[in-house]
C-alpha cells in the first residue's frame, strides 16, 4: 500500500510521565496526563474559569493556548494543569527575534508573573510559521531561552516551536523521513538537543486521508483502528496506524540531523466531526478516542508514551478556511460533548 503523507494544521493534546522541576528545585514524578488544545476563535465560549473546571472534571490534565491570554493564565493558577504556552503570531515571533530585551520583558510578564502557580511546561515560539519566515524562529527561541535562563527557569520550562508536518519530506516509508529545509530546521533541532527541549509537531492523519480520498490510505489505518499493517523495509518495522508512521518519519529526520535524542511532542492532532470528506462524528470519535488510548504505548520506533495534544476543546465557529476547520472540537460551546470521549485518570 502506497501512502501519501501530507500536513496541515489545527490543534491537539496530551502529556506523559516525565520529571518536572518546581520553583523549590524539587523534582516530582508526574503520572501520565492528557491534554487538549484550547482555541478561542468561537462564539459564546465558556469563561476561562469555566473552561479550566471543564478540563478538570473530564480528567484532562494538560492544555495548550495560542497566546498568553491573561484571563486564561489567571484561571489556571493552582489548577494543576500543565501548559504549552504559545507566544502568539508571526509578528510576536519577529519581535522576540529582534530584541533580547523584549524577550526578557515577555518572560517577566507572561511566565514569571504566573509560574509556578501555572505549570508552564513548554513555550512554543511560533505555530506553523510559513516557510518564507522560518529564519526568525531560531533567534526568537534563543532570546526566550536566554531570558528564562536569566530567571533561573530554563531547566523547568523548555522552548520550542510548533511545526506543520510538511517540514518533513520523503515521509513514506517512515525511515526515509528527512527535513525539507535542512538549513532551517537542522539548527533548530540542534538547539532543542542542546537545551533538552522537545520537537513540537502538528500531526494530522485526517488531512492525508482527505487528500488521498481513500484511494491508498484506508480509513481504519488513518483512524487508529485495527485491520491494516504496512511494513517499512527500510527499518524492518510494521505499522498499523498512519499516526505512528508520521511520528516515526519525524524521528527519522531528527536522526539524520544528528539529533536522535530529541523527543517528539505532538502539539496538535485531531479529526473533524463535520464539514468535509471523511469528517463525521463516528470517525472523529474513533480517531480521538483511539489516540487517547494509543499514545501510552509509543510508536514502533520509540517505546514509551507519546506526549500528544488533541485539537481541540471546542468547535470554533469563527475560524477561517474550510468548514472542517470549525468542527474539530470535543465539545460544543455550551460544554456538551460533540461525542463521548473518556480520558483516563
Overall description:
One of its GO terms (molecular function) is glucan endo-1,3-beta-D-glucosidase activity. Pfam families: Glyco_hydro_17. Keywords: Glycosidase, Hydrolase. InterPro entries: GH, Glyco_hydro_17, Glyco_hydro_17_plant. One of its GO terms (biological process) is carbohydrate metabolic process. The protein has 345 residues and is of the alpha/beta class. It has a single domain (34-331), classed as Alpha-Beta Barrel (TIM Barrel). The protein has 10 helices and 15 strands. The protein has an 8-stranded parallel barrel, surrounded by 4 helices. A hairpin with a 5-residue loop joins strand 2 and strand 3. Helix 4 crosses helix 5 (137-150). The radius of gyration is 19 Å and the shape is globular. The model is unreliable at 1-32 (pLDDT under 50).
Tag the structure with descriptive keywords.
TIM Barrel; 18% strand; glucan endo-1,3-beta-D-glucosidase activity; disordered N terminus; eight-stranded parallel β-barrel; 345 residues; two-stranded antiparallel sheet; alpha/beta
> Which sequence of SSEs, written as H and E, runs from N to C?
EEEEHEHEHHEHEEEHEHHEEHEHE
Strand arrangement in the largest pleated sheet: 4-5-6-7-8-11-14-15
Counting helices, strands and paired strands, the structural category is: alpha/beta
Under the CATH scheme, which class? Alpha Beta
Name of the CATH homologous superfamily = Glycosidases
Overall mean pLDDT score? 91
Q: What is the strand tally? A: 15
Q: Major sheet, described briefly?
A: 8 strands, parallel, barrel
Strand content: 15-25%
Radius of gyration, in angstroms, nearest whole number: 19 Å
Q: Which segments are poorly predicted (pLDDT under 50) over 5 or more consecutive residues?
A: 1-32
Q: How far is the N terminus from the C terminus? A: 37 Å
Do you know the CATH topology? TIM Barrel
CATH architecture: Alpha-Beta Barrel
What is the general shape?
globular
| Number of individual domains | 1
Q: What is the count of DSSP helices, taking H or I runs of 4+ residues?
A: 10
| Helix content, binned percent | 25-40%
Family: Belongs to the glycosyl hydrolase 17 family.
InterPro entries: GH (IPR017853), Glyco_hydro_17 (IPR000490), Glyco_hydro_17_plant (IPR044965)
Protein name: Glucan endo-1,3-beta-D-glucosidase
Keywords: Glycosidase, Hydrolase
